[in-house]
Design brief:
Strand content: under 5%
Largest sheet: none
Structural class: mainly alpha
Helix content: 40-55%
Shape: globular
Radius of gyration: 16 Å
Length: 179
C-alpha cells in the first residue's frame, strides 16, 4: 500500500483483534439487541468485563492457533492504555486512571492504525444518524485522532502516515454514510 505497510498483515490484525469478545458477546454494543447489561451493572464491573476482551483475544490466539507473535503484539496494543470514557462518564469522574485499559500503548504503526480505525468505527457507529455532512465525517475522524494524540497513544506514528490514514478514513466514512 502507499502507507508502506503490509496490507495482508493489517487485514489479519483487523480480522482477529476483537476475537476475545466471543467470551462474553452480550457485553458489547454490536451484539446487543434491546437489553444493555451495563445499564444494571456498576461502571467498574462493566469496565472489567469490557476491557478483558484484549487479553481474551491474545489468549485465544495463543492457545487455539499458530498465530505469529507479531500479530498478537499488535492486537494486544490496539486499545493502548486509553480510558473507557463511556464508563468513566457514568461515575463521579474523579479517577480516569481506574478506567484505563491495562495494555501497552501502540509500539508501532500497525497497532496505531488499528487503534485509529477501531476508534473511528466505534464513534461513527454510535452517531451514524448525525454523519450526514462532509464536515461531520471530517470532525469524527479529526476529533478521534486528536483525542488519541493528546493521550499520547500515537507517539510511534510518522506524521505522513497519520495524515494518510486520516484522509482515507474520511473518504471511507463518506462512502459509508453518504446521503
Amino acid at each position: 500500500s502507499d502507507l508502506g505497510m503490509d496490507t495482508n498483515l493489517m487485514k489479519v490484525c483487523a480480522t482477529y483483534h476483537d476475537i476475545g469478545k466471543m467470551c462474553n458477546p452480550t457485553m458489547f454494543t454490536e451484539n446487543q439487541t434491546e437489553v444493555n447489561p451495563h445499564d444494571s451493572l456498576e461502571p467498574h464491573i462493566s469496565y472489567q468485563l469490557i476491557s478483558r476482551h484484549v487479553a481474551d483475544s491474545v489468549f485465544i490466539l495463543t492457545t487455539e492457533t499458530d498465530m505469529p507473535i507479531e500479530i498478537m503484539e499488535i492486537i494486544s496494543e490496539h486499545h493502548g492504555d486509553t480510558v473507557l470514557k463511556a464508563l468513566f462518564n457514568k461515575t463521579d469522574k474523579k479517577n480516569p486512571e481506574s478506567f484505563r485499559y491495562k495494555c501497552p500503548k501502540p509500539s508501532g504503526e500497525y497497532a496505531s492504525v488499528l487503534m485509529i480505525v477501531d476508534s473511528v468505527e466505534a464513534t461513527a457507529r454510535s452517531m451514524a444518524d448525525k454523519l450526514n455532512t462532509p464536515e461531520s465525517k471530517i470532525k469524527v475522524v479529526k476529533d478521534t485522532i486528536d483525542r488519541l494524540r493528546e493521550d499520547e497513544q500515537l507517539d510511534m506514528m510518522k506524521v505522513g502516515v497519520l495524515r494518510q490514514v486520516q484522509h482515507r478514513l474520511i473518504r471511507e466514512l463518506d462512502g459509508i454514510y453518504h446521503t
